[in-house]
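Teaching note: in complex prediction, the entire set of molecules is handled at once rather than each chain in isolation. The prompt given to students was simply: 'Predict the structure of this complex.' The entities are:
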Amino acid sequence: MAVAQFIPSSSSLTKRTTLYSSQLSQYLSSTHKPLLTLRRTNYAKICCSVTSNEVQAPVAKQSNDPIKKPECFGVFCLTYDLKAEEETSSWKKMINVSVSGAAGMIANHLLFKLASGEVFGPDQPIALKLLGSERSIQALEGRAWEQCDHAGVAMELEDSLFPLLREVSIGIDPYEVFQDAEWALLIGAKPRGPGMERAGLLDINGQIFAEQGKALNAVASRNVKVIVVGNPCNTNALICLKNAPDIPSKNFHALTRLDENRAKCQLALKAGVFYDKVSNMTIWGNHSTTQVPDFLNAKINGFQVKEVIRDTKWLEEEFTEKVQKRGGVLIQKWGRSSAASTAVSVVDAIRSLVTPTPEGDWFSTGVYTNGNPYGIAEDIVFSMPCRSKGDGDYELVKDVLMDDYLRSRIKKSEDELLAEKRCVAHLTGEGIAVCDLPGDTMLPGEM
Amino acid sequence: MAVAQFIPSSSSLTKRTTLYSSQLSQYLSSTHKPLLTLRRTNYAKICCSVTSNEVQAPVAKQSNDPIKKPECFGVFCLTYDLKAEEETSSWKKMINVSVSGAAGMIANHLLFKLASGEVFGPDQPIALKLLGSERSIQALEGRAWEQCDHAGVAMELEDSLFPLLREVSIGIDPYEVFQDAEWALLIGAKPRGPGMERAGLLDINGQIFAEQGKALNAVASRNVKVIVVGNPCNTNALICLKNAPDIPSKNFHALTRLDENRAKCQLALKAGVFYDKVSNMTIWGNHSTTQVPDFLNAKINGFQVKEVIRDTKWLEEEFTEKVQKRGGVLIQKWGRSSAASTAVSVVDAIRSLVTPTPEGDWFSTGVYTNGNPYGIAEDIVFSMPCRSKGDGDYELVKDVLMDDYLRSRIKKSEDELLAEKRCVAHLTGEGIAVCDLPGDTMLPGEM
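The expected output is the structure of the full assembly:
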């Protein structure tokens, strides 16, 4: 597997620590070659200590701190000059990865994958910045432990001893947590409550993503890559990018990779081949039931799907539904959400951007339509076929086939996204919202 | 990271499939170079189809099948001759990994790690055989879907498209699921019910592990490596190995790696160093509150712990408790079990056996005491310091320090394990059980 070549645009490597214990002083003075350079931090208030030793003793936050930071956690309050140590001096510069919804099930899988090195490579040290939920904010009124609903996962990350994981911090203010973020993985979103209309869901989540867009615009790396997982993810991504005018709109993604993976699996099952034989799979449009898994351009063993699966009825009538219903089957039959496979698909989505796309293949991701060659409406977030050189950026694939069936399906998803856009106009700075949404198209299992 | 060099002792690579669809026949006849060799399987009854196409259509099981097999799942019912394809011809022979408790939270993390290649390496194809729980057995009375409580995780594994994962099968009979197993990861165990005495827990889980030991003895690879995670894991491992006389007792492990990892983290926190600076950490004894995290032999930056942490009171009175209580803190404070970090520690335990131990270091694992150099009672499963050449085997580390404090703590854990052994004598073939267990020593959060 090729190693990620993506070089972050801003350095996050700082030397800092909250440590000045007597034991450590003794230790440092008793060794002739101290491996660490230590200085007092100026943002050392710690909310989530789980042990009572001096490493985590609270220190007053200096009010003249020019940059707000989330609170570090436990052993991760230590950060070293990686270049000063033999075993880490060949590593890349540390990257900052911010994750919202970090106390949830998807993040519970994803954070360990990020920390293990399997996403960004074995020489890429990583800082994880966890954004707390609204529950955390409410709990701020005095209850010290509960304010840190991400402390449990941070504690498990500590116990996992991942060598590449050099920093874990937790905060509830996106303006702190997104500081210098080079990747923002936005998983957290409000689920739909009983009786809530789709417009209500768009509004309540839209507000979260508007706020997070503003925060990214203010404090994140100027080339931050944003992957929106929280649903409705396409329109959430649109709201987010509209609120972050100083960050390239191109850098915002809505996750449709799980749909792509599921579509490949269903074609493989039908054709009787292993799933690694399916390539060039596009998910077009919205991450909803109007999504279009494209069997016209997909290939099986290099052959067009229709040459291998000669059952047009199945392709046109059953295939798409099978892809959409996977999440619902999981929930209904086994009472489990697709957390693990969603996390895998986020890993796939990141890897597709930081490793060169194999010759002749492509991947799907929901991106901003700005000069697309397919005749899709501009100024929405639409899943389309993309290729990457492995630098974190991508380009649209231009030589795809279109037929009437595909075009009509794409049009339906486009119409839906345009309606969603009108419904969140108050959040994108484009006037008064008008909600004329078509029927409910949330994917089963993703309410 | 070094790549696993462990070569499995028996081949599990077979060519088989349940496929003979008309589409596939058309496909194969329409291509001049078929990549797969297909033949009908003789064990093709499938219980867990989640789609309705012909790939998963039930086929009568032949009654003269000489070897019972678990049921394959979905796309994994296809198995190929890996050597016949360009991209897989350099891969190692597929290994069979059997996992019990595969519907639980620990396995939900572990299975995806196994499938991704991060455990056994990027050129090691893998077959996962999932052992269903008693709930599955009960559900066998006619309810087709519920009988497969592992089908949900199998479906998510399908959707993850792991190239190395070539087979997933599900069964409820260990004599089927352990067939040719080269690794058996025994996670499943009964939790203690309300009012259940520890002796009752030992008995009910001991019976499960006696049965699984017999099954391993009958059908697993003659050099299978067994890692027992289900608690009480030391005595479960002893029962298992006693019921598998044809498999080397040396091959059975009780997982104490999470304790080792936690101990390293706590020493790092206290010393104010990153956890990768802590080495030579031994957990002695039972995976219970009598466990002995060894600060006499552990090192920090190559120095003895006592040279770095000059707080003997903390080391003797607080350190061990901090290690033990991590799981309890997670449960009590955040309502989460340590599933993710336990799965990471299983990965660490396997990697420690399939990669050479770094020079001068060691790892902890609960193994059969047979000629140990520490004066610990023979014929129990006791966690001790071990090294490996990376061939799946290990040797005990001999040059460790002992002092009165360490010896007295080890003695207490030894006494406990000897008492547990007397309490399961009916399951190890050593006569009538006598339960004179000391007080309750289950770890918090592991009831």
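Point out the following to students. The two ends of chain B are 36 Å apart (CA to CA). The mean pLDDT of chain B is 82.
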